[in-house]
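TOPIC: backbone geometry
CONTENTS: sequence, C-alpha cells:
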Amino acid sequence: MSTEETQPPAIPVADKVPAKVTHVSHEGWMREGLAIVVVGASGDLAKKKTYPSLLSLFAGSLLPPDVIIYGYARSDMADEDLREKLRPYMIGKRYDDAVVEDFLGRCRYQSGSGSYGDVDGWKTLDARLVACEKNEVEEGKKRSNRLFYFAIPPNVFAETGAAIKSACMAPGGFSRMIVEKPFGRDLESCKDILSSLGQHFDETNLFRIDHYLGKEMVQNLNVMRFGNIWLENIMNRNYVQCVMLTFKEPFGTDGRGGYFDQYGVIRDVIQNHLLQVMCLLCMECPGKLDGPEAGEKIRDEKVRVLEAISPVTIDEVFLGQYEGYTDDKTITNKDSNCPTFAILRCFINNPRWAGVPIIFKAGKALNERKAEMRIQFKDAPAAETLFGHKVPRNEIVMLLQPGESIYMKSNIKTPGFSSAPMQSELEVKYDNRYFNRGSKECNPDAYSRLILDVLRGRSASFVRSDELLRAWEIFTPVLHQIEKDNIKPHSYKMGSRGPKGADEWSTSKSGYVRNEEYVYDNDGIAQSASSKGGEMKSGGHVVGDWGGWKIQQWRMRPLGYDGADGRRAGTVAAFMSKKME
C-alpha cells in the first residue's frame, strides 16, 4: 500500500480554526491529537445527529484544532461523497458556510468490505490514522487519542468491537467507544449485548449514551437538588405527594413502525429515558458532583435507587394504542398489541421516598410535544380552615422540552380586593433568561454535550452496565406478561390526551390533585367588556365579590410575550365588575 493511499493531505495552517480559550482549553486532551471515527457514517443517525453535534463542538473550539474525523461504513464511496451527504444537514442551519466547509474538509471516509467486522478495512483505517498521528508527533504532541462513535444497530456491536480491538486501537492515547441504544429488549438480550462488548472493552472504554441525560434541565438536576438548601430539605416522603415524569409526542411512528413494533413505548422511552431522569431526581447526594471523579459516585447512587424499586406488576400499568397505528405499512402484524401509550406506577422503597408514587407517562400521537418532571407537594397543613378556601398544592415543574424552563407553582393572595389564595408561579425560562438577548452563551444540544463529556473522561451522564441490568430486572417481567397474555391496549384518537380513563387512572394511582382554576395556557389577552351589558367575553373567573359587585380575574400576557412554549411569561391581573343579579 503506497504512502499516497494511506496518508491524507495535511490540513493547511491557514485553514485551521483560530485558537479560542474555552472551559476545556487547559485540559490535557485538548493539546493532544484526536481522531474521531463515526461507525455507520452513511446512516440517518450519523447524518442527522452525530456529525452536526461534532460540527457544534468544532465551531465552538471544543475540539483540538487538528482534529480529524473519519466515517466508517459498508457503503463504497469517496471522501467527497460523504461530504455531499452531510452538507445538507449543516449548510444554512446555524453556522457560517465557511465554518461548515472547514469542518467538512476534515471529514474523510473508509469503507469496510460488506461488514462492520472487516478487519482488513479497519487495518487500512488504522494505517491512515497512524499517518496523521505521525504528523502530530512531529508537531510536538505527546500522544494521540481515538474516539469511536457506534451509530450502528446492536446486532453488529460484537463484530465491530472485535475488529477495532484487533486492528484500530490508539497506540499511545485513549480509545473510547460511544454506544447508542437500544441496549436489548429484555434482561437476557441486554446481557448478550453487554457480553459482546465487554469481552473487548471495560467500563473505562465504554460510554453508553442516553441523550436525555445530556439535556439542559437534566444536567441542572444536581445543582437544583443539592445546591439549594430549601429544596433538598423538602424532597422526601414527608412533603412530596407524588413525582411524575412525562413524555408526549404529537406524531405517530411515521414509517418507523416496523422498528417501533418490536419495542413499544415502555422500552423505547420509559425503561431508559424517563427512568434515568428519575434516578437523578430522586437519588441521595453523592460524595462528589462535578469533575472526572464524580462519575462513579453519581452512578453508584443511581443504582441504589434502582435497587430499591420492585419489579413493575401488570396492575400498575395502563396501556394505550392510537387508532390507525397498524396502518403503518412497515408493521407486519396488523393485530399488534404494541403500546404507543403507557402510564406506570412504582415506588422507591427507601427511607426518603417510601410510599411516594412515582408515575411514568409516555405516549405518541398525543395532543402536544412535551417532556417534563413534576413534583407535587402535599397540602399545606390546615390551609383550608385558615383561609376558608381550598388552597392549591405547591408544585415544581422542570420542562425538558420544548423551551427549557423551571417553574414553581406557589400560592399568593388574589390581587385586588379579594383575600382568597390563588396559584401563580415563579419561573425561569432559559431561552429568555440565558440563551437570548444577544447572549454569547448557547444551549448545546444533548449529543454535543455528551460527546464532549466522553472526551473529558466524565462518565456521570452515561449508563453503567449494572444500571442497565437492574433497569431490565424492573421491567422485563411485566413486558413479557403483556406479550405472553396478549394484553390489549386501550384505543385513543390521534391528537388527544390519550385513552379514555387514563387521567382518572393516573390520579387514583398518584393522589395528584389538579387545580382546575390555574390557567396553564392562556393565549388571549384580557378582553374588555362587550357592548352588551358589560358581559365578559372569555377567560375570566370569579374570585370574590365586593359590595354586590362580582370581581372577576383575568390573566394577561405582557407586551413582547412570544408564547412559544404555550405558557405565559408573566401575569398581570385585570378586573372587571358586573352588578350581581
